[in-house]
Amino acid sequence: MLGAIVGDIVGSQFEWKEKQIYDFPLFTGACHYTDDSLMTLAIGEAFMLRRGRWREDDFQAFVIERMVKMGREHQASSWGERFYQWFMKSPVPYNSCGNGAAMRVSSVGWVSESEEDVRYFSKLVTEVSHNHPEGIKGAESVAMAIYLARIGTPMEEIRQRMIEYYPEILSMRVKSIKREYGIDQGGRFITCQGSVPQAIVCFLESHSFEDAVRLAISLGGDTDTQGAITGSIAEAYYGVPYDIEDQAISYLTPKLESIYYAFSTVKQPRKKR
Ligand SMILES: [Mg+2]
């Protein structure tokens, strides 16, 4: 969850700016939280408030309620048009395969105690809006990477598991992704299938949490969401340095900050490397 918030806030300063840079100040006056942090926190809050009662029949309705509430309280934030309609008018699934499915799912990797949990909870929180098969797959793959990283799975094994979701990862490198990535009128880079494998590759090529976030943001385009997805996986693998945590949290409102800290009470521990 923290990694998603960091990636979102750091990436927000470059969203759709047509830049592909790696060396930049992480936190500046142009940084702010966006929809990625907000929906990450909304889903985390649902798990926190319903601690241990996540398999009850009404839990999915409760997740929707928290997401709708969060959206309506932050209408001025940067929302995709269809998702804005979802929380303002009608919170029913709209067959989306947008990368919103993957940027908001990280808490699933932290509350799950088995791979079966990951599959069950990632579908539960995703199909409320992003019920397209690619949306479900994008969310599950990211939550699974987080779960596997959190329990101490070696990088090479995580890579193999991610190749099962996205065989194209086998031949993808950050360098080659950058050649064709960025702003795309067709919207390919804001789908799960057009951005999740790329975000995973940034994690797989990284050497630290900060390196992972920088690599993801250096792809350009939807930088806050790329940063959020890669950051959420990198957090589970490397942990987040305290100074980066403190700086990111300082961008949140007191209310959002309290949700962030409260979520830690339902988190499963991370195996240190
Ligand atoms: Mg965003």
Q: What can be said about this structure in brief?
A:
The chain is mostly helical. Helices cover about 60% and strands about 0% of the residues.
CATH first level:
Mainly Alpha
- Beta strands, count: 0
**In the CATH hierarchy, what is the architecture at level 2?**
Orthogonal Bundle
The domain tally reads 1
Write the CATH fold name: ADP-ribosylglycohydrolase fold
Cα radius of gyration in angstroms: 17 Å
The named CATH superfamily: ADP-ribosylation/Crystallin J1
First and last CA, distance: 19 Å
Shape: globular
Structural class per helix/strand content? mainly alpha
Mean pLDDT: 96
- H/E series: HHHHHHHHHHHHHHH
* Approximate strand percentage: under 5%
Q: Name the poorly predicted regions.
A: none
Bound molecules: magnesium ion
Number of helices: 15
Q: Share of helix among residues? A: 55-70%
Main sheet specs: none
Secondary-structure topology with pairs:
Elements: H1 2-11, H2 35-49, H3 59-73, H4 81-88, H5 100-103, H6 106-111, H7 115-126, H8 133-150, H9 155-165, H10 174-180, H11 192-204, H12 209-217, H13 223-238, H14 242-249, H15 254-263
Helix pairs in contact: 1-13, 1-14, 2-3, 2-15, 3-4, 7-8, 8-9, 8-11, 8-13, 11-12, 11-13, 12-13
Bound molecules: magnesium ion.
Structure notes:
It is globular, with a radius of gyration of 17 Å. The chain has helices spanning 2-11, 35-49, 59-73, 81-88, 100-103, 106-111, 115-126, 133-150, 155-165, 174-180, 192-204, 209-217, 223-238, 242-249, 254-263. Helix content is 59%, strand content 0%. Helix 1 crosses helix 14 and helix 3 (59-73) packs across helix 4. The longest helix has 18 residues, at 133-150. It is mainly alpha-helical. It has a single domain, classed as ADP-ribosylation/Crystallin J1 (ADP-ribosylglycohydrolase fold, Orthogonal Bundle). Magnesium ion (MG) is lined by residues 34-36, 78, 224-225.
